[in-house]
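Need tokens for this chain, all 468 residues.
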Amino acid sequence: MFEIFDAQLLARLQFAFTVSFHIIFPAFSIGLASYLAVLEGLWLWKKDKVYLELFDFWKTIFAVAFGMGVVSGIVMSYQFGTNWSVFSDKAGPVIGPLMGYEVLTAFFLEAGFLGVMLFGRERVGSGLHYLATLMVALGTLISATWILSVNSWMQTPTGFAINDVGQFVPVDWWAIVFNPSFPYRLTHMVIAAYLTTAFVVGGVGAYHLLRRTSPSRAGTMFSMAMWMAAIVAPIQILVGDAHGLNTLEHQPAKVMAMEGHFDSHPDGAPLILFGLPNQAEKRIDYAIQIPKLSSLILKHDLNAPLAGLDTIDDDKEPPVAVVFWSFRVMVALGFAMLGVGLFSLWCRWRGTLFENRMLHRVALLMAPAGFVAVLAGWITTEVGRQPYTIYGHLLTADSISPIAAPAVAASLIAFIIVYFLVFGAGTFYILRLMARLPRDPMPDLDDGPIRTSGITPAAQTEGGKHGL
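Here are the structure tokens for all 468 residues:
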């Protein structure tokens, strides 16, 4: 294995492996923190104990997911020093402060209020406890803001200069933080996190509705999740379209790879639905396509010209096959989520939202769809940026540490073993928690329990109540 792969490819595989594990936990915890804030707010407003019981149920799951997200994120900063030290040296003056701000704002906010949210209701009261829940939710959003700003700057770098030793130094912090792709990527990612959480919550609710356990709790969470799917999924599709147009403006090679356009199309480009990318021969084999639809989507004109990868140097092309298929997985799952949301609206209109077992089975099947879509979108974004780490300015080949392939391979194997053991156990524990939704309590009797043997107290019988 050491002879087949070079250090650069192994380092990329190691970072891809660790970030793929990491991203699923923040994607879940961002949405779940906001969901907890909604649940506690509804409980304070309506005084319906179902919302409080659901809050306590999801609070434990959030704590485990949050902890695994923090631990898995630490490893990536370790890799900046071991595998990507040249990148860290060159980009550190820009990226270092931004990541420091994430710790000083978001992480301190989350850490400061997390304990109160988890354990403090009886100690601080309902109002302050709700404030703590809101602060944790806000902290997750601020964390996403800083991290997406860093990554977006790497995709569309602005506001910098390069000094005499080749370092990227800040010139305009506003331009760095609010770089051209940042608003689109932040909105797209946060909505993706909300949809991911909605389908997990909906899947858990569907699971318990199918088992007919705790119908009030299961029905409440399922209804809330389906509202989120029906409302937010179409918004995400529109945001994704706007993000794609922004990417076409600033990273055209990435869009060419996503669309599978090896050739330029001066009179309107087709939308290639499926096919087998053949990068060696510069074509899509067995392509199934719709004429001129890609030009309509990207330029809003059927006959608009679109450039292809034939305008890009071969050594500057991203890996087309990976980007082509990961993009289609993301889009397909996005439309599948929209379909579930519309199906739930139809069932809600017919009054069968809690009885339609086909909807419940589909929702259960779609529970992990958000995670897969997030991973597919992340792969599209990161692989589509290749061969650069800082798009257009710093090549991946010039970013790696002077490290031997066997050393990277050894740490990659260690990561794979430890991650599957530790995070596999954590994920299994979360699934066990999800399967243990408390049962609905038995109806309360007016005057205490009825005895199962002996003489029933007269006060608890109809005759006793009426003096008969």
